[in-house]
Amino acid sequence: MIKRPANKLVRRILAGTLVVALVTGAVFWMHMSINQAAREAACFDELAAVLTSGVDAERLFERRLADLQSLVERSLVARSEMLVVSNRLRVDRDSPLSGRDLVTLKSGTEYYLDIREDLYEVANAYECAVDATPEMLRAFDVTPELRLKALMLSLSAALTLYDNYLLGVVLFEQDDRLRKVINDPDMGFGLVANKLAEATLAANSVQVRHRARRAIRVYEQEKSIFADSAEDADETYLMQLIENSPSYNYIRKIRVGEIAGNKVQAFERIVADTARSRAEDGVDMLSGLFGNTVGLYESRKGKLYGDEEALRHLQSELKPLDILLEKTPFRLTDKLIPGHFGHVAIWTGTRAELIDAGVWSELLVEQYADRIGSGRNPDSKDEYQVIEALRSGVKLSKLEDFMNVDDVAVLRPVFDQETKREDAKEALLMAFRQVGKKYDFNFDVNTTDKIVCSELAYISFPTFDWPTEETLGRHSISPDNVAQMAWNNVPLRLIAFYHDGELVPEELQVEKMRALMLD
Fold first, then answer.
1. What is the value of pTM for the model shown?
2. Which CATH code for domain 308-518?
């Protein structure tokens, strides 16, 4: 008899708590719906203003896609650098951070925040495509396919934001010492307080996740419209960017088997899992969880990867200044590069060959002497003798590492006989002058402080009249622009060509390469 009033009181408390929870939830969702409606209205208004001003919808999309591609490339670099810094600093947590470490952390934070702001802008640009009606699309002459690609672009930017957080920022978020340094303000770098905390709150925001899930739901429901259409490089790139995003895949994995009404907060799980993985294993937590440390998706290895016979054959053919072209259709970043080939590099030659060319004692070359010819054999071709512009910058690589490809072509420069030695020496020194430069994410040949892979050839051979293309107000040179210079054996001559992992017969090489480039 004494227990009944207590039970009644408990029931009242529970009922009151439930009412408060329901009211709070209703207010929250109403507030979120109002915010969503306001965001969509602003998005529609901005798009309408641009399109009614005479800007073509397709061209506007292409411009924003180019912006996204650059931001994705920069994100890959940022993730790699954050991983390297985090791995190095966590080795000895009891020692004070050096001045160089502090500068690296602050400048890295500044770089990340710049990328973050730009990605937000791209993500917001087409967010309202989720609710675009057929009437709206007809009013601005936008096809359903273009509308879905615009939505995919917005979703890709949002997922890249999440991936940057999960594959990079979490590394510092889970370390008390590094988190404090990054969260502290620094006027010298233009950093206000708690920027890392702000990124963490945004990544775990219910509203942000809700918007991402809406876009994912529409994408999954409508992506089949591309099934019967001709191959579209833009759609292929965006689809692979989305479906190979660690964030997207993890959400899909969690959602399978979930029971309605018992939703799990997927992104909190990712953060918890990555932190737990790091604490338990002390190894590269990202490769264990996502299978790809920097998010550079690679579905398989190249068909020439580990092919010793092909490696030795190419080494026997290569001479200083030979240009290497490659094709890697199994990599995401290959999808949006126009044409057949996706990368350009330059072969330096051996120590003996560089001595013979008269450049070995030049300071530009001498500083890399230990890497180019460190062994006793001056004719060795197993050293770091490939100059290439990667996202991390222009560097020296080994041919063996370069061979993770399906196609590779070797093009040899043809110089004027009267000035051949002088021209070759100038080209070699110019190629070495590029080592250490940053990657040109704007793909602009008119800039020389940063270069992209094909610009390496453009700059290194100043006596050649290279073809360029104008895209979105910038002049650029693609790997295919370089390759087409070998169609008539002047000023480049095709020396060797492997396609789909196989050596093409010498008499068919030019014809085969040209056909692939024109396909």
1. 0.68
2. 3.90.1720.10
